Automatic annotation (TrEMBL):
<keyword id="KW-0732">Signal</keyword>
<dbReference type="InterPro" id="IPR006059">
    <property type="entry name" value="SBP"/>
</dbReference>
<dbReference type="Pfam" id="PF13416">
    <property type="entry name" value="SBP_bac_8"/>
</dbReference>
<dbReference type="InterPro" id="IPR050490">
    <property type="entry name" value="Bact_solute-bd_prot1"/>
</dbReference>
<protein>
    <submittedName>
        <fullName>Cellobiose transport system substrate-binding protein</fullName>
    </submittedName>
</protein>
<feature type="signal peptide">
    <location>
        <begin position="1"/>
        <end position="21"/>
    </location>
</feature>
Amino acid sequence: MRQRPTLLAAIAVLGATVACGGPADGRIELTIGTFTEFGYEQLLTEYEAAHPNIKIVHNKTGQGGPYHQALFTKLGAGSGLADVQAVEEGYLADVLARPALFHNLEQIGPATADRWLDWKYQQAKAKDGSLIGYGTDIGPLAMCYRKDLFAAAGLPSEPEAVKPLFASWQSFFAAGDRFVAKSGGKAWFDSAAQIFNAMHNQLDTGYFDRQDRLTVEQNTAIRQNWDQVTAAAARGQSAKLVAFSNEWNSGFKSGAFATKTCPAWMLGVIKEQAGPDNAGKWAVTDAFPGGGGNWGGSFLTVPKQSKHPKEAAELAAWLTAPEQQVKAFLKAGTFPSQVKALTAQELLGWTDAYFGGVRSGELFATQARKVGKAQYKGPGDGKIQENASTPALQTVEQGASAQEGWQRFVDSAKKLAK
């Protein structure tokens, strides 16, 4: 979610997750590798206090491509991974394709199958039926927007009143045309890639079918989404910003765009980047074009490299239990994926003054239940999004035709899928 470190730095940190030996006092040493902010620091201290025979070494680094490239390097080498290793959903398919290198948590861990939202639980099941990861957070989608920019353009601005604008992608892009015309050419959304990715994740079939065959050229829905997004960008709706770049960050503060696809964790990004001067200008509503979706979320795995797999599985199960998920949410804003956690009063009563006092916990719990079955993601899915569709859409925003960008996307996807 944040800016990414260099690959070498990520590999160095990930490699540090393996300890040379156990602690001198005879305790079992467990290592856990995570990225960005899981909200685990206090929880790990709590776990150690309740398990005096356990010492935990937590290694945290940046998120995204470099972290996972380092993970797969260590996985291929047969050494270097933590006892508990976090995996982001965009790279989970590459893990599920190698189930023999990870423990089946249904065999070595506590019984937990009934804990999660079904779509989250099913995401971590390999084709052989093994459960490779315990689900941590999720990113149910809502829509964030600038109330002041909406009002200035003559659009409704209160959360209930804006819902019809976000009822479908057709209504979303139609509202964008109205906004661009009435605002003197201001941008409706931040980048074509951000919109395209949200639309793509709602499709029944994504970049791969369940036989791991690339579908980009055959899946007409992908091309339809491409055409809609690039046409809207051509009509001036895109701010043409690269997500998580410095320019994108500052765009929240300067009002460079009026709407933002908004998974639960995005509220923290907006508050940080828009700053206190924009408190009350940003709002969030429990509506999303196409009905809902998910962006983000991770899993805790136990690689076969672990010397203490049973203890590692117990730690992973505890960290992802409802009570700990709620604590992590209150600490770091990581939204829970556990069914019981979604009914916790601490979550449902959570309000966010920055967004006008919205009951954001309740709002995103509602959005989480709108997500249907998880889209199947084949090996290399995350790489295609990061290194094929996103840069190809950026070339269109920089002047290439929609067809030229599409061909670049297709060609890059084919190379990555080999």
